[in-house]
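Sample entry (329 residues):
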Amino acid sequence: MRIATLYLLLFFVFSHAYFGKENEALAVFGWATLLQSPRTVAFEGAGSAFPSQDFGAALMNPALLQGEGFGAGLSWQSGDLVNNQGIAVFSHSLSIGGIEGRMQHTYGVVDNGEVWHHDEHGEPENIASYPIAQYYAITAAFPLKHFKFGITGRYLWDRLAETPISQVGMGLAMDWGLLWNSGSARYGFALMGRHLGRQVRPYIKGGVNGYALASELAASAFWRSNQNLTWLFECSAPRYSPATGKLGLEYRFAEPVLIRAGMQRELIDVARFARSIFDSSENAPKAGYYRLFSAGAGYRLWNLILDYSYSMLIEGQGNEHRVALSGSF
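Predicted structure, serialized as C-alpha cells:
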C-alpha cells in the first residue's frame, strides 16, 4: 500500500510538468527515451498496446508488464549515432493487499566514452571529459476490472563534464499506463503518459533547475488480422514536438521465429504527403524522425528469447543495431 501511495503522489506532483509550459523547449534527459529493447524499436514504438513478456514492452507502457516466476533480460545497442548503451532488467511477482501483480526493476546506461572540450571559437582544448548517464526504474502493474494499470517511477543521473563548476544532473520521472481488458486476443487498446517529471538538480553549480522532461501522452491499439499477422498503431503527443504516428507489424514466420518492422512519422508530414499526391505544388515531406525505418526478428528457445533489430537512419547518417537476451525461470 505504501508503494501505491508513493506512485499516486508522484503522479499528481509530476503531471504538471507536461501541461505547464513555463520551460517550453528546454526538455532534459531526452536520452532516457532512446533506451529500448530491440523488439520495441523494431516496431518503432507502435506495440504499446500489444501484450508481451518482452521487458521492453513495460518501458513503453507499464501496464504491459506480465509474466510468471522470475524474469531477467539484457539489451545492448550500438551504431553510428549510439554506442555503449544498454538496459538490464529483473522482474518478479508482487502482492499488495491481496491483489496479485508484477514488478520490474530496470537499469539503463549511456556511456559516451572520451569527449574532448572545445572553446567558444571551436578550437580544441587539452581537456577531456567522460560523460555518462544512468537511470534506475521500478515498474509495477496490477489487474483491475476493466483495465490493467501500470506505473513506473524513475531516477535519472547524468554527468556531462568534470570541470570545477559542473556537477551531476538529476531528475525524477513517472510513467503510467492503462491497458483495456477487451477479453479478445484479436484487438486491444491502451493509454499512456511517459516521462512525466522534472529536473531536480542542475548540471552547473548554482544553475537553473526545474526543467521538464521530454514528456508525452499516447494512445495505442493492435489488431490481429489472422493467426500469424498483427498490426500495431500508436499516436503520441510529445510535450515539445509535433504529434507522431507509429505503424508496426509482427509476422509469425515459423513457430519459434517472429519477424517485425515499423516506422514513425510526424502527422503533419503524413498530411503533407497525402496532399502532395493530389496537388503537384505541395512538396513531399522530409522524414520527421531520425530513424527512417526499423526491422527485426525474435527467436524463442525453451524459456530464452533472442531479439535483434536494425534501424536505418535518415539522410545517410548510418544505422543502429540492438540485440537482447531475456528469459524466465
